[in-house]
From TrEMBL:
<dbReference type="GO" id="GO:0016020">
    <property type="term" value="C:membrane"/>
</dbReference>
<comment type="similarity">
    <text>Belongs to the short-chain dehydrogenases/reductases (SDR) family.</text>
</comment>
<feature type="domain" description="Ketoreductase">
    <location>
        <begin position="2"/>
        <end position="175"/>
    </location>
</feature>
<dbReference type="InterPro" id="IPR002347">
    <property type="entry name" value="SDR_fam"/>
</dbReference>
<dbReference type="GO" id="GO:0016491">
    <property type="term" value="F:oxidoreductase activity"/>
</dbReference>
<dbReference type="InterPro" id="IPR036291">
    <property type="entry name" value="NAD(P)-bd_dom_sf"/>
</dbReference>
<protein>
    <submittedName>
        <fullName>SDR family oxidoreductase</fullName>
    </submittedName>
</protein>
<dbReference type="Pfam" id="PF00106">
    <property type="entry name" value="adh_short"/>
</dbReference>
<keyword id="KW-0560">Oxidoreductase</keyword>
<dbReference type="InterPro" id="IPR057326">
    <property type="entry name" value="KR_dom"/>
</dbReference>
Length: 238
């Protein structure tokens, strides 16, 4: 059994990650999913879809921006499954405005989820993986972790920060057999794009494109580590 915890599972890439893991169930791979999101209705719908593939899926309504919810997620994982084999740090948000118009509320909203919550959940799960000398942590970051974009000041900062965490964590992971993977997608057709998604859809990837690559990376033999994946639409960045 592989226990896989996915944050931001209710929509977009997270939702398709859960479904792709479920579809890949086989005699050699039996996933058990812990689906985390702020919206119960999204999780309940996804849970039923996973059950249709005969895959066990538990839900945890939580907001990783709130540190008390980090402990709630960890407790839920241990009580239901006893461990976490794979953490997928997928939850992420963005506020896209001119850098001179961004507010403290925009800053706190973005950083509390993309950096603060991601860091402390990773810390909580990695401690157990380190002790077991086994596990895989996957970060869904962005090409904005390497390439600056206008109208994305705080978002780019948070993604650069996530990449820094990935690279430091990998130093620890190599010492205890824990794989660390950074997935950096370009533009993906998800709700985060709002109305702009309709305008640019023809130049975007779909969430399932990213999900297939992530699951393939997880299913590699434990002796290998897919450390970094960059995906872009064939036409390049928007």
């Amino acid at each position: 059994m592989s226990v896989i915890l996915i944050t931001g599972a209710g929509k977009g890439i997270g939702r398709h990650l859960a479904l792709e893991f479920a579809k890949c169930k086989s005699p050699d791979f039996e996933p058990q999913l812990l689906l985390v999101s702020r919206t119960r209705s999204d999780l309940e719908t996804l849970q039923q879809e996973c059950h249709a593939h005969q895959v066990e899926a538990e839900i945890c309504v939580a907001d990783i921006a709130q540190l008390e919810h980090i402990e709630k997620i960890y407790t839920c994982a241990l009580q239901r499954f006893g461990k976490v084999d794979c953490l997928v740090n997928n939850a992420g948000v963005g506020r896209f405005k001119d850098i001179l118009e961004l507010t403290e509320e925009d800053f706190d909203y973005t950083i509390n989820i993309n950096l603060k919550g991601t860091f402390f959940l990773t810390q909580r799960i990695f401690r157990d993986m380190q002790q077991r000398r086994s596990g895989h942590i996957i970060f869904i970051t962005s090409v904005a972790a390497e390439v600056p974009f206008e109208q994305s000041g705080i978002y780019c900062m948070s993604k650069f920060g996530q990449k820094g965490l990935v690279e430091v964590l990998r130093l620890y992971g190599r010492k205890c057999n824990v794989r660390i993977t950074n997935v950096m997608p370009g533009a993906v057709y998800t709700p985060m794009w709002g109305e702009a998604a309709q305008t640019f859809q023809s130049r975007m990837m779909m969430p399932e494109d990213v999900a297939k690559i992530v699951v393939a990376a997880y299913l590699q033999p434990e002796r290998t580590s897919v450390e970094e994946i960059v995906l872009r639409p064939i036409a390049g960045d928007l």
